[in-house]
Amino acid sequence: MSAHTISPQEYEEFRAFLEGACGIVLGENKKYLVTSRLNRVVAEYNLGSLSELIRLIKSDRSPDLRDRIIEAMTTNETSWFRDRTPYTALDQLILPDLARTRCDTLRIWSAACSSGQEPYSIGITVSEFQIANPGVLSSDVQIVATDISPAMLRVARSGCYDNLAMGRGMSPELKKRYFRPRGNRWEVIAPIRSKVQFRELNLLRSYALMGAFDVIFCRNVLIYFSTASKRDILERITPTLNPGGYLLLGGSESLAGVSDFFQMIRFGGGVIYKRKP
Ligand SMILES: C[S@@+](CC[C@H](N)C(=O)[O-])C[C@H]1O[C@@H](n2cnc3c(N)ncnc32)[C@H](O)[C@@H]1O
Hints:
Layout: H1 8-22, H2 31-44, H3 50-59, H4 63-73, H5 85-101, E1 106-110, H6 117-132, E2 141-147, H7 150-158, E3 160-161, H8 163-166, H9 172-178, E4 179-182, E5 185-188, H10 190-193, E6 196-200, E7 213-218, H11 227-237, E8 241-249, E9 262-267, E10 270-275
Parallel strand pairs: 1-2, 1-7, 2-6, 7-8
Antiparallel strand pairs: 3-5, 4-5, 8-10, 9-10
Helix pairs in contact: 1-3, 2-4, 5-6
S-adenosylmethionine (SAM) binds next to loops.
């Protein structure tokens, strides 16, 4: 593949496009990364140059290309029970509390679910809680998992993972209980899959159709956004959380601008946020 270069003006135009399309802010030092990722798209679409690609993106005539660019520029890094503490908090603090205070369906939102490990880890944690505490959780649990990337959502919906993905955080014991072999991959069992509903959602757009939640995982996505976008997303996520509900952010993310609405709870070396009544 012959590598095409990007001019300073095209780089600025691309940065503005990407931030407007999905919130991701590219630093000045990302030019090499951007060029190499965009060159792959130039080759895939048989285009003559990076300049042609930038012109096509700006003309907004190809939604398919737009999705492909967002996909090329996003980080989909994830793993089972990532960082552990949020799942321990769900098991030891959040579910026991909600079991006491709520009797209708518990709704949990995984707000940037990538290839599905986060919502399925939530489903497995809920199931383990129900096994260890029979009858305590009287309500059904529904998990809604969203992401901007159609390709990640396809993997997530398939519920099938190779050995490499399984090796990232899934214990042999839980693998045995919650997965079945399918060819050389592992498929999440139906009772867990049926708890999870996947939908495409850009966090920069409206949440009007999402409904209200008792727990929201919004983890390891806000770090890529500007302070203004983080604040805007958190301001709009807050009203979708029922009073007394819980918000879990990534280890390096914090409640920019909406802290008045939340009580901070220190748990296992991290912080979780409970919406004030
Ligand atoms: C690093 S992964 C985090 C996955 C998971 N939450 C975790 O902590 O393991 C970030 C995800 O955010 C998604 N994403 C990026 N920008 C987004 C946006 N504007 N709206 C929704 N999802 C977005 C990406 O597609 C990617 O799957």
